Amino acid sequence: MKDTKTETAASFDVNDYLRQDRMPHFLCPGCGHGIALRALLWAVHEQGIPKDRLAVVSGIGCSGRLSAYIDANTFHTTHGRPLTFATGLKLARPDLHVIVITGDGDCLAIGGNHLIHACRRNLDITCVMLNNEIYGMTGGQVSPMTAEGRFTTTTPEGNTEPNFDACALAAAAGASFVGREVTAQVLALKTLLGQAIAHEGFSFVEVLSDCTEIYGRKNDLGASPEMMLAKKSAMRPYAYRNTVDVPFRPNALRTGVLTRTDRPEYGAAWRAMAARIREEE
Amino acid sequence: MDKRNRTTNVLIVGVGGQGVIMVSKVLAQLCQEAGHDVKQSEVHGMAKRGGGVFSHVRFGPKVWSPTIPEGEVDILVALEWAEGLRWIRHLKPETGTFIADCQKIVPPFACRSRKRGAEPAYAPQTPEEIIDQVHAGYVMDATGLAANLGNARAANTVLLGALSTALDFPEAAWAQVIAATVPPKSVGINARAFTEGRAWALGGTKRIDVTASGLQKSRAEVHHPQVETVVEITADWCKGCDICVKSCPERCLRLNDQLKAELALPELCTGCQLCSWLCPDMAISVTNTPVQEAAS
Ligand SMILES: Cc1ncc(C[n+]2csc(CCOP(=O)(O)OP(=O)(O)O)c2C)c(N)n1
Ligand code: SF4
Ligand code: SF4
Ligand code: SF4
Ligand SMILES: [Mg+2]
């Protein structure tokens, strides 16, 4: 466990963590990214991380823009590369809690290679991928997370490619903490994000978010509340695994903590080597 | 030169998501219907949302090039203040008209210090300084005007209203093209926004009115035997997504006629906070204070 609980737990007011002069944010009405942002800030608060020791690194996308609204050390980087910037930052400043906010396109398309290597290294970073199954910001192109059959601007006849299972990918690449949650289960999401932040090593959280304005419309998924609630009922919460004899929604994606292993954290090994070299000199 | 024989150049600028393209579409359509040769060219999509967007509209008896040379812009319409300043040197020095929303969208990179109250590195020029440099100038709180009419996103139509005073098309023709361009459910608000913007600009050729309205908050107190619940809704942040309304277990919220959430049945509210957790726009805050504490 890290020394995160340094501030006494006052009740959470999201406004303490927002750059008030930047609000209201630019997301479309009902965009799931907003719910995820609030849950993340809540988790940060519950972990007792002082704002000066929080660093949020984001890529490009509607998801990437969220760092601009957070009143902490924020770093809005280039498309697909937030994990690389975060890696440098965490190695140079191990005292910071580094959280990466990225989108499904940012993280798995242009940034896919960086993700697998970040997972492999197991540096102590929390990567929060907001999966809305589309490139929201650029007008709704297909992403590696778009489900088969879905309509996007670049798949006007329906997507014919299968999508990734991002959590399985991250776990296979070596991430030592992997979890998934929907925005509608906001308490569970907050708890999961808190666990990911507290975990020592690379943690990957897939938040199933909704691009209401583009993906929702193109696929006739209803208004924001319907879209959000439909996701919730399409999942299999991990907590239900033992409650019934017949598996609950056996074919649905699982939510909750999916992988937690105890691998050596990369930063410690790297610093030990650096210290050794310095001693030898 | 005879005004009817030359090309009129209008440059519309702003940031992604504000509706620059809608303004230029309306203008181009109007010019075409009036029998002009029209060329419209734009740069968008390359910008990240929140990045710069601009559109050139040129019309006249015969237009050859789709882009306006520097210093040849007759009217510059800026949906965002700093974007207006960025393009102001493109305006015709002697006769150009500058129409701008005073609204500032501070880009993330302008935020170098996060100390409370620190000045971002944003264009420091005041509307007064800018108006002094141009032939005719209008700096207005188009976003505020539109918000007062019920939807801040109609700010671009408020500016269209101001633009209409600088060109020779009949008011009815503008109204018709706008109604045909915007989505059917927002025809009403856009018509009002246009009229408002036009009336405002008719008030003088060098006008500044940047009175921005403060944050509008509604507050409801609910008395329970053991806790005092306060539900606060920041109307200016609410985007009317309906999530809180559909998620409230007691069904005590609703959207009002301006599509803002409000606590319609406070007596039913249990203070469960679900609405505040799920609001994507952080527009709702629910606080529960034990009665003893609240009394002291
Ligand atoms: C190097 C580079 N390539 C392409 C782009 C254009 N671009 C901006 S955001 C984006 C995709 C964003 O999708 P995602 O990461 O899923 O974020 P969302 O908007 O859905 O949250 C792309 C392709 C860019 N900004 N930079
Ligand atoms: S385009 Fe989609 S992802 Fe982007 S803000 Fe709008 S709803 Fe959200
Ligand atoms: S606090 Fe609960 S009961 Fe009250 S308005 Fe919000 S969701 Fe409804
Ligand atoms: S959830 Fe928030 S933004 Fe949506 S209608 Fe309710 S208050 Fe408005
Ligand atoms: Mg996406």
TrEMBL record, chain A:
Any Pfam family the entry gives: TPP_enzyme_C
Gene3D superfamilies (alphabetical): 3.40.50.970
InterPro entries, sorted: 2-oxoacid:Fd_oxidoreductase, THDP-binding, TPP_enzyme_TPP-bd
SUPFAM superfamilies named among the record's database cross-references: Thiamin diphosphate-binding fold (THDP-binding)
CDD domains membership: TPP_OGFOR
Record-level Gene Ontology MF annotations: oxidoreductase activity, acting on the aldehyde or oxo group of donors, iron-sulfur protein as acceptor; thiamine pyrophosphate binding
Domain of life, per lineage: Bacteria
Keywords: Oxidoreductase
Domain Thiamine pyrophosphate enzyme TPP-binding span(s) in chain numbering: 60-207
GO biological process, one term: small molecule metabolic process
Name of this protein: 2-oxoglutarate ferredoxin oxidoreductase beta subunit
UniProtKB/TrEMBL annotation, chain B:
Pfam families per UniProt: POR
Residues annotated as domain 4Fe-4S ferredoxin-type: 229-258, 259-289
InterPro entries xref list: 4Fe4S_Fe-S-bd (IPR017896), 4Fe4S_Fe_S_CS (IPR017900), IorB_Oxidoreductase (IPR052198), Pyrv/ketoisovalerate_OxRed_cat (IPR019752), Pyrv_flavodox_OxRed_cen (IPR002869)
Keyword Nuclease assigned: no
Highest taxon above the source species: Bacteria
Entry keyword Metal-binding: yes
GO molecular function, one term: oxidoreductase activity, acting on the aldehyde or oxo group of donors
Keywords for this protein: Iron, Iron-sulfur, Metal-binding, Oxidoreductase, Pyruvate
Protein name (record): Indolepyruvate ferredoxin oxidoreductase beta subunit
Species: Rhodovulum visakhapatnamense
